[in-house]
Amino acid sequence: MSTLEIKDLHVSVEDKEILRGIDLTVRSDEMHALMGPNGNGKSTLLAAIMGNPKYKVTQGSITLDGKDVLSMPVDERSRAGLFLGMQYPSEVPGVTNSDFLRTAINARRERPISLFQFIKGMDHAIQELQMKPDLAHRFLNVGFSGGEKKRNEIVQMLLLKPSLAMLDEIDSGLDVDALRIVADAILNAQKEDHMGVVVVSHYARFLDYLKPTHAHVLVDGKIVVSGGPELIHRVDSEGYDWIEKEYHVQARKEEKPKPVLLESCGAKKVE
Question: What global pTM score does this model have?
Answer without folding.
Answer: 0.90
